[in-house]
Amino acid sequence: MTQPPPHGWHQQPPPPQQGWQQPPPGWGPPQPPKKSKAPLVVGTLAGVLVLAGVVTGLVLHLNVNKDSGTSKRADKLPSLCGNVSETALAKARTTNPNGLMSRETKLSKGVRTTCSWNQTKGVDGTGHRTTDVSVTNEREEAESAFSRSISMNMANTQGTPLQKPIEGLGDEAVVILVETKSAFTEMSVIVRKGEMIVEVDLSGWDAGLFANTKPDPAELEAAARGVAEEMVAKI
């Protein structure tokens, strides 16, 4: 049973509702702002770019550092090529005989023997190396042939040739370094011993982190000179 209000109090009827029964548009409690997706998009894009960079770098590294040698061949070279030992060829990082580039050629006043080696896969490392040796019997024209070989090497237009003499090798000898704008580098040792002219050309480049790099000239010179010394000692 409904109790009457206490004395002195009067229960007021609720005021009549007028107008909107619901808050008008734009009124009412504030709504939380919608979260922006921009940071997520930017973060995702950055992650994709980083991943792409890592993948690209890995591909470049593997390509540059791949073994550029070929399987060991059993090519027979001219007998004179046997004057160069496996030890000297290993130092030059070219232990694979290349029969296609090796031959004996008769000249009007002598014979020229050419010997060629390149890299053996799994043995001579990455980068690139080629060793070419020519031995020419020039008879009475050895001195002029020696000067001619030097002039031809110094006329190399692919780079800037630098020349210096070598003491204690044959009757006279020089070493010529040719550096190019690329990583390709060539080292030539030219020796005259009596009527014989020996030229050793060692060329190539080294593998860097993401691109080819120039070899150490001192390493090339030591390797080329080692091959020349062995050939000269046995002719």
UniProtKB/TrEMBL annotation:
User: Mind listing the UniProt keywords for this protein, alphabetically?
Assistant: Membrane, Transmembrane, Transmembrane helix
Domain of life, source organism:
Bacteria
Per the UniProt record, the source organism is: Lentzea sokolovensis
| Pro residues bias: start-end ranges | 1-33
Region feature Disordered, mapped onto this chain:
1-38
Write the protein's name.
Answer: DUF3558 domain-containing protein
Residue intervals passing through the bilayer: 40-64
